[in-house]
Amino acid sequence: MKTVPILHTMRRPNSRGSLARSFLLRRPARSLAGRMLLLVAAVTLLASCKKPPAGPAAAVPEVTVMTVVQQDTPVDFEFTAQTQSSREVEIRARVDGFLDKRVYTEGQLVRPGQILFLMDPKPFQAALQTAKGELAQQQARLYVTKANLARVVPLAAQNALSKKDLDDATGNERQAEAAVIAAQGQVETAELNLSYTTIKSPLAGLSSFARQQDGSYVTAAATGLLTYIYQLDPMWVNFSISENELLGYRDQQAKGRLKFPANQSFEVTVVLADGSVFPQRGQINFANPAFDTKTGTFLVRASFANPQGTLRPGQFVRALVSGAVRPNAILVPQRAVLQGAKSHFVWVVDSDSKAHQRVVETGDWHGDDWFISDGLKPGDRVVVDGAIRVVADTPLKITGAPSAPASQPAAASQPAAASLPPGGPQHLAARESGQPVTK
Fold this sequence. Notes:
Number of strands: 21
Order of helices and strands: HHEEEEEEHHEEEEEHEEEEEEEEEEH
CATH architecture of the largest domain: Beta Barrel
CATH class of the largest domain: Mainly Beta
CATH topology of the largest domain: Elongation Factor Tu (Ef-tu), domain 3
Number of domains: 4
Radius of gyration: 48 Å
Helix content: 25-40%
């Protein structure tokens, strides 16, 4: 069978469709039915090479939106603090001698007047006897001088004795009286030294371990420290504030961003190491009038009732100082604030449900929220949940309010900043020192 040349003038195929047509035209001539079958196959091949249809349009982001409001917000200031006994007493030996016995249980609570240590009393008993003997001698001498003076006085009045004899008798009597007084002092000193061999607790508190063991020779000057007694109720909590923090909060107070309680009556809460809150609330009772030149910090002390002895001296705790308020504050959840190349920003939704970037100035944290110092005004609608999926000037699908309220209770919130506001410590220090209070 001969090949029938068809369309010798066709150009070289350059696509899948052209390749199919070329294949069809170069096939040997067949019957009409065969050619039709080939044509159908070519059309099917061309249809299979078409571009697939485009996918569905991108979904509209679903977001939650909050409306910005201004409200007075209580804030706490958090500090790292340490507990201190309100009376920390050193128990010392007041005389030199051998330590006979420790009669208290180390680490236990002790009562006022409870015996803690006993020293060897025998040398002090002997010294007391000697002092009493000296006193008896001086008293006998005084008796003699008094009797002698009683005889001299009438004789001198009759000019039977010279005036010098009268003066000598009078002087001897007075010397004997002074000697008796000195001897009585020696007896009292010996009695005191003997009493010092029984060492007692001057207060109720928690006892420490013994620094000296039974049988040790202790001296009052060098090795006289025997133990400590710590009073547990009340307990002090000390914390420090840096100068920069005070200046920063003073500036916020001047701008009206902070307001402090009347009479600077701040309330202090203690959070223990395990996160539990100490049930008693404390009050600031002292502020050092001067900064520590070594650390550049300002010492503040709060007093807590501690009837159960829960707080112990030396514990590291967190002190939350309450009472300050941020007036007309704007709070935005932290997840609504995004970090841009140069600043923080939020997505603000307009009346057409389209989002626009708004640069904001952030302040302190407040629980799960952020104080916004500048950039937002009441009535603005801010994207909270889903902010990361938002595209500028793109319609949004608003599904409702944020999953959590914008503001949290102050007691459960994170501190606004690790600093006590200015004014409070200075005023307290001024009251302590009697100086006038200045702003």
